[in-house]
C-alpha cells in the first residue's frame, strides 16, 4: 500500500476507493483527456496531484516483470510467456500515461520535484527522452540510462541541434534543465527523497519485451547511474553548454508536446473462461503539440541557468544570463507567456540579488508606509511576520509590498526595520520551499548586516519554534546560504553559544490574542487536516446548539487535549444551572431553552479552550453573558449564580491558555507568573471558600492543580490544608487519582534529583559519593505505574481518533491524561526511565533501554501487577512522545529513543535519533559536525548496526573508519555486498582509509564492475591519502571527510525525511 491510493499494478478498468470517494484507475487517465486536465488543474479534491500520481505509477510499474506478472490474476489459458508479454505492455502503457500527465502540467519541473522521489524524476525524464528520440538514429543511445551522460550530451553540437525535430530539442532541454535542478536538489537541506532501488525493464518504446527481461540490470544500478550524473560538476557544465546552444537556435517558433501527442488503445477480450485487456501504445502524433514563441522558451532557459549560477554563488555569470533574459522580457512580458512557468516574483528576486535592473515596474499599492512608526508598532509588524512563518496566511504580495514601501522611504533610520522585514520574508520562502534566489538574497543580507542586526538574527534562529529538528533545519539552510568561513565567523563572534533565546512577550497581547470567526489563532496544533477542513469543523462547533452536535464537532478537531467528557460536564452544569427559582414569574421566563443555551455555550467555550482557540472561547462566553444580562427582571440570586459559574468558565479558558504557554520552550517569566496567578485563584477558592459559596468545578480545579505542579509549587500542593480540602472535594463527584499520583511523582522526583549526580557517576562506572542509594519513593512510583499499566487500555486515549476521555475516569486513562499535561522535565525523565526499565526486563532481544536512573528501579516486575510486554511497549512509545514534545531531548533520551526504534524495526527513525544525540544545541556544532574522538564509540556502533539493518553498506564502510580501532572486518564485509540501498558511488569519496579503498577496488574488479572500480581508484589516487604525508595531513583529511559524511546523513535522515 502506498499512502491512501491502491497500487496501479494491473492497469485494468477498476476503481480505487479512498475516503469514500471513487478515484479513477490509471487506465481511465489513459483514455480520458478531460480527466487528465482535471487532475492537472487540481479542481477535483478526490484526485491525487499530478506529481503524486506519477510517483505512485512509476514505483509500481518499474518493478521486475517476473514479480509483477506473479501478482496478476492467474488464468488457466494464459501461459507464462504471454503473461510476461501482457505485463510489460501494461507497464509501457502506464509509463506513457505518466508522460501524458507531465505534459498536462507543461513539464513544470518545480511541481514534479514537490512530491516525486529524485529517482522517479530521473525515470520520467529518461522515458521522455526515449519517446522523443524513438524515430531517430539516437534511439539506441537513450534507451539505456547508463549512456545518457556528459559524453552523450556533448555530442549534440549547434549544427546537429539545428537539424533536430522540435520534440527532440524539447526533450534534450528538459533533460538538461532537470540536471541543473537535480544538482541543486542534492545540496539542499530539504530535498526530494532518494526513492527505493528499482529495476529497469527497458524503454517505453522497446518493441521486444523478452529482450528487456534478458537485459535487466541490478536493482540499484539505476540509482548509481543517477547519482554519478548529478554529483559531477562536469555533467552540469555540459548541460549548460547544451542549453546555450539551444537558446541560440535560429527559430521563431517551437513545438511543445502535449498530452494529446501520446495515444493508448485497448483491445478487450471476454470469454467464459477469461477476461483480458490488451493495451497498445500507438505511435506518437507530434503534430498535436502546441506551438509557442521560441523567445518564450529562451527566457525559461536563461532563467534556469541563472538560477543554477546563483545557487553556486557565481554572481557575475548569473547577472549575465539575467541581463539577457530581461532583454527578452522587454520584448514579451511574462503575462503573455502561454507555456513557460515563470513568475514576476522569482525574476524580481533574482534581479535584486545580482543588482540587475528589474524588467517589471514597481508594484503599486494602496498601502502607505508611515516613516514615524513607533518601535512597538514596528515590533508588532515583525512579530506578525514571524508568527506567520509556519502557516503562510499572509500573502506574498502583502509581504513584499510592505518591504517595497519601507525601501522607498527616504528615512535612513528605517534600515534595521527593513533588514528584519526582508529576513522574515526570505525565511518564509524557505519554510514554503527552497528558492534559489532567496538563498542568495540571504547570503547578501548576512554580508551587509550590522552587529545589532546579527544579534537580532541570532535570537530569531535560536528561539524560533520548539523542535530540535526545525532548529537544525534553519541552521542548515544558513549553512548553504553563505560560505563556510562566513557562517563560522558569525557563529563564533555574533551568535550565542547555546540556543536558549526567549523572544520578548507582551502579556497584554496574550490575553487579546487576535482571531476571528474562522478561528485563525491556532498555535502549535498538528496539521492533520487541511486549513479549510479545520475552519469548517470549528465553524460547526461554533454553530452547535446541542451536546450531540458539540460531540460530533469535537471528534474532528485535531489533537484536542483530553479533559472531562461532555456527559460529566453536562451533569455538573445541570447541578448548578439554573438554581432554585423562588418566583413563578421567573420560572415562566427561565425555561428549559434558556438552560440548554447556557449549558451548551459553556461546553462550546470549554472545547474551544481545550483546542487552543482561547479568543473564540472568550467570545462565546461574552455573548452568552450579554444574553442573560438583557433578561427582563431576572432574580438577583439567579444572576449571582450565573455570574459565579461564568467566572469559573472564563478562568478555565485562561488556565488552558497558561497550560499551552507552559508547553512552549519560549515560555517567559511573565507567562509563568500569570499561570501561577490563575491557578492560585482556584486553589485559594478551594482552601478559603465560604459556606454559601458555590463549589469549584472539578475539571477547573484539576487543571489548576496540574499547572501548579508544572510550576513546581510542590510545597504548596503538599500543605495539609490543601490536601484535606482536595480529599473532601472527592465527595462532590471528582475522582481520586490525581492528587495521590501527583504527590507520588513529587516525592519520587525529589528523591531522584537529590541523587542524580551519584546516578550519573554510576552510569559512567565511577564510584558514587553515597555508599547506598535511597529509592523508597521511587519504588512506590514503580509499583503504582505497574499497577496502572496492568489495568490500562494498551493504547493511550489521545491516540484513538475521536476519543474524549475524562481526566480521571479510569486509572489507566487518568494516568495518560495527567501525563499528557505534565511539562516538568525531571518528572517526565523519571517516568521515561521507569517504563524503559520495565521494557528492558520484558524484552527478549539483546537491546536494552539503559538510562542513568536505572539503579533506582527494581530488577523484577511486581508479581501482584502482571504487565504484558505489549502494554509496556505502548507505554514506552507514549511516554517518549510526551517527553520529547516537552523538551526532554538530551543526548541520553535521544539514544534511548533510537534504541527503542531499532528494536521495533523502525531503522530510519532510529538513525535520526542517534544523529540528534551527537548534535550539541549550538549553531557552530551543526556547521562543523562532531567527528573523531568527540563521537561516542557506543553511539557509532549503534549507527553502524542501524545502517547494516537498512542495508546501507557503503555508508557502513565509511562509518567503520571512525571506530577505535578501525573495524576493518565489518568494512570489508560491507563493501563486498552486492546489494546496497545508498548512493554507493557518491559515498566512496568519504572514505580516506587506503586499505578499505584498495579492498573495495579488488572486490569491484572481481565482480566485473569496472566502472565502479574506476570510481574507487580515482578516490584512491588522491595524493593526500599516501603514507608519505605527515600524520597531521591524514588527521585533517579524516576530519574533513567525516564532517562531509555526517552532513549527508543529517540531510537524509534528520532534515530530508
From TrEMBL:
GO terms for biological process: snRNA 3'-end processing. One of its GO terms (cellular component) is chromosome. It comes from the Eukaryota. Its main location: nucleus. Keywords: Chromosome, Nucleus. It is found in: Chromosome; Nucleus. This is INTS8 TPR repeats domain-containing protein.
Amino acid at each position: 500500500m502506498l499512502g491512501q491510493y491502491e497500487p496501479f499494478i494491473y492497469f485494468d478498468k477498476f476503481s480505487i476507493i479512498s475516503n469514500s470517494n471513487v478515484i479513477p484507475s490509471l487506465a481511465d487517465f489513459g483514455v480520458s483527456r478531460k480527466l487528465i486536465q482535471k487532475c492537472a488543474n487540481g479542481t477535483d479534491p478526490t484526485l491525487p496531484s499530478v506529481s503524486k500520481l506519477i510517483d505512485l505509477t512509476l514505483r509500481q510499474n518499474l518493478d521486475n516483470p517476473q514479480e509483477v506478472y506473479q501478482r496478476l490474476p492467474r488464468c488457466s489459458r494464459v501461459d507464462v510467456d504471454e503473461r510476461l508479454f501482457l505485463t510489460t505492455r501494461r507497464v509501457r502503457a502506464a509509463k506513457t500515461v505518466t508522460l501524458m500527465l507531465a505534459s498536462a502540467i507543461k513539464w513544470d519541473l518545480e511541481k514534479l520535484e514537490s512530491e516525486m522521489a529524485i529517482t522517479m524524476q530521473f525515470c520520467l525524464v529518461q522515458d521522455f527522452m526515449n519517446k522523443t528520440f524513438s524515430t531517430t538514429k539516437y534511439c539506441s543511445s537513450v534507451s539505456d540510462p547508463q549512456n545518457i551522460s556528459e559524453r552523450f550530451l556533448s555530442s549534440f553540437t549547434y549544427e546537429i541541434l539545428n537539424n533536430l525535430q522540435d520534440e527532440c530539442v524539447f526533450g534534450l532541454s528538459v533533460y538538461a534543465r532537470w540536471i541543473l535542478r537535480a544538482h541543486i536538489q542534492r545540496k539542499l537541506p530539504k530535498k526530494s527523497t532518494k526513492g527505493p532501488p528499482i529495476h529497469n525493464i527497458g524503454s517505453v518504446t522497446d518493441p521486444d519485451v523478452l529482450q528487456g527481461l534478458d537485459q535487466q540490470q541490478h536493482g540499484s544500478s539505476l540509482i548509481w547511474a543517477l547519482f554519478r550524473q548529478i554529483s559531477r560538476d562536469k555533467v552540469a557544465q555540459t548541460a549548460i553548454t547544451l542549453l546555450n546552444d539551444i537558446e541560440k537556435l535560429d527559430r521563431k517558433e517551437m513545438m511543445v508536446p502535449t498530452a494529446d501527442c501520446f495515444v493508448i488503445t485497448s483491445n478487450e477480450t471476454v470469454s467464459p473462461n477469461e477476461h483480458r485487456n490488451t493495451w497498445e501504445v500507438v505511435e506518437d502524433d507530434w503534430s498535436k503539440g502546441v506551438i509557442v514563441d521560441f523567445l518564450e522558451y529562451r527566457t525559461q532557459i536563461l532563467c534556469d541557468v541563472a538560477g543554477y549560477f546563483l545557487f553556486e554563488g557565481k554572481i557575475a555569470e548569473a547577472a549575465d544570463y539575467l541581463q539577457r533574459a530581461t532583454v527578452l522580457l522587454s520584448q514579451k512580458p511574462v503575462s503573455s507567456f502561454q507555456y513557460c512557468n515563470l513568475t514576476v516574483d522569482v525574476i524580481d528576486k533574482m534581479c535584486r540579488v545580482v543588482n540587475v535592473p528589474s524588467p517589471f515596474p514597481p508594484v503599486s499599492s494602496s498601502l502607505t508606509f508611515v516613516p514615524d512608526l513607533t518601535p512597538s508598532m514596528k515590533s508588532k509588524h515583525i512579530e506578525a511576520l514571524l508568527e506567520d512563518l509556519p502557516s503562510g496566511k499572509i500573502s506574498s504580495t502583502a509581504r513584499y509590498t510592505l518591504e517595497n514601501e519601507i525601501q522607498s522611504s527616504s528615512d535612513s533610520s528605517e534600515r534595521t526595520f527593513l533588514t528584519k522585514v526582508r529576513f522574515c520574508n526570505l525565511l518564509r520562502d524557505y519554510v514554503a520551499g527552497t528558492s534559489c534566489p532567496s538563498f542568495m538574497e540571504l547570503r547578501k543580507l548576512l554580508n551587509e548586516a550590522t552587529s545589532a542586526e546579527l544579534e537580532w538574527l541570532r535570537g530569531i534562529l535560536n528561539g524560533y519554534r520548539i523542535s530540535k529538528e526545525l532548529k537544525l533545519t534553519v541552521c542548515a539552510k544558513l549553512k548553504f546560504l553563505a560560505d563556510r568561513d562566513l557562517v563560522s565567523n558569525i557563529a563564533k563572534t555574533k551568535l550565542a553559544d547555546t540556543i536558549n533565546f526567549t523572544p520578548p512577550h507582551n502579556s497584554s497581547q496574550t490575553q487579546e490574542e487576535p482571531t476571528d470567526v474562522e478561528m485563525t489563532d491556532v498555535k502549535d496544533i498538528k496539521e492533520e487536516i487541511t486549513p479549510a477542513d479545520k475552519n469548517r469543523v470549528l465553524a460547526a462547533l461554533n454553530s452547535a446548539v446541542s451536546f450531540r452536535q458539540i460531540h460530533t464537532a469535537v471528534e474532528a478537531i485535531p489533537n484536542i487535549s483530553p479533559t472531562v467528557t461532555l456527559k460529566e460536564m453536562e451533569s455538573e452544569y445541570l447541578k448548578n444551572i439554573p438554581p432554585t427559582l423562588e418566583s413563578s414569574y421567573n420560572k415562566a421566563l427561565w425555561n428549559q431553552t434558556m438552560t440548554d443555551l447556557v449549558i451548551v455555550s459553556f461546553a462550546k467555550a470549554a472545547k474551544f479552550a481545550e483546542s487552543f482557540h482561547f479568543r473564540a472561547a472568550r467570545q462565546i462566553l461574552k455573548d452568552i453573558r450579554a444574553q442573560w444580562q438583557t433578561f427582563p427582571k431576572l432574580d438577583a440570586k439567579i444572576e449571582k449564580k450565573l455570574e459565579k459559574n461564568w467566572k469559573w468558565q472564563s478562568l478555565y479558558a485562561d488556565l488552558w491558555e497558561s497550560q499551552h504557554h507552559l508547553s512552549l520552550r519560549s515560555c517567559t517569566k511573565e507567562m509563568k507568573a500569570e499561570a501561577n496567578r490563575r491557578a492560585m485563584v482556584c486553589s485559594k477558592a478551594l482552601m478559603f471558600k465560604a459556606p454559601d459559596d458555590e463549589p469549584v468545578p472539578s475539571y477547573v480545579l484539576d487543571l489548576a492543580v496540574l499547572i501548579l505542579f508544572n510550576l513546581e509549587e510542590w510545597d504548596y500542593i503538599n500543605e495539609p490544608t490543601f490536601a484535606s480540602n482536595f480529599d473532601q472535594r472527592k465527595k462532590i463527584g471528582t475522582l481520586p487519582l490525581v492528587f495521590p499520583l501527583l504527590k507520588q511523582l513529587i516525592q519520587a522526583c525529589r528523591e531522584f534529583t537529590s541523587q542524580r549526580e551519584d546516578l550519573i557517576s554510576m552510569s559512567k562506572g565511577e564510584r558514587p559519593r553515597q555508599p547506598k542509594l535511597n529509592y523508597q519513593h521511587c519504588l512506590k512510583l514503580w509499583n503504582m505505574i505497574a499497577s496502572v499499566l496492568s489495568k490500562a487500555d494498551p493504547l493511550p486515549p489521545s491516540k484513538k481518533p475521536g476519543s474524549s476521555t475524562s481526566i480521571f475516569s479510569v486509572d489507566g486513562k487518568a494516568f495518560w491524561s495527567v501525563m499528557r499535561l505534565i511539562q516538568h522535565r525531571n518528572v517526565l525523565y523519571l517516568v521515561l526511565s521507569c517504563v524503559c526499565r520495565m521494557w528492558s526486563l520484558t524484552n527478549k532481544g539483546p537491546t536494552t533501554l539503559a538510562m542513568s536512573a536505572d539503579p533506582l528501579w527494581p530488577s523484577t516486575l511486581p508479581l501482584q501487577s502482571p504487565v504484558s510486554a505489549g502494554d509496556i511497549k505502548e507505554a514506552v512509545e507514549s511516554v517518549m512522545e510526551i517527553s520529547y514534545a516537552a523538551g526532554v531531548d538530551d543526548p541520553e533520551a535521544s539514544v534511548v529513543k533510537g534504541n527503542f526504534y531499532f528494536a521495533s524495526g523502525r531503522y530510519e527513525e532510529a538513525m535520526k535519533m542517534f544523529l540528534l544525540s551527537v548534535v550539541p544545541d549550538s549553531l557552530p556544532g551543526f556547521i562543523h559536525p562532531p567527528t573523531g574522538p568527540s563521537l561516542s564509540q557506543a553511539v557509532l556502533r549503534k549507527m553502524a548496526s542501524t545502517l547494516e539493518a537498512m542495508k546501507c553498506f557503503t555508508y557502513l564502510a565509511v562509518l567503520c573508519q571512525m571506530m577505535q580501532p578501525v573495524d576493518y572486518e565489518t568494512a570489508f564485509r560491507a563493501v563486498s555486498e552486492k546489494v546496497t540501498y545508498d548512493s554507493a558511488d557518491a559515498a566512496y569519496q568519504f572514505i580516506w582509509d587506503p586499505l578499505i579503498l584498495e579492498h573495495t577496488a579488488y572486490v569491484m574488479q572481481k565482480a566485473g564492475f569496472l566502472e565502479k572500480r574506476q570510481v574507487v581508484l580515482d578516490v584512491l589516487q588522491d595524493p593526500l591519502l599516501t603514507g608519505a604525508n605527515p600524520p597531521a595531513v591524514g588527521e585533517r583529511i579524516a576530519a574533513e571527510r567525516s564532517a562531509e559524511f555526517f552532513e549527508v546523513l543529517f540531510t537524509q535522515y534528520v532534515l530530508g525525511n
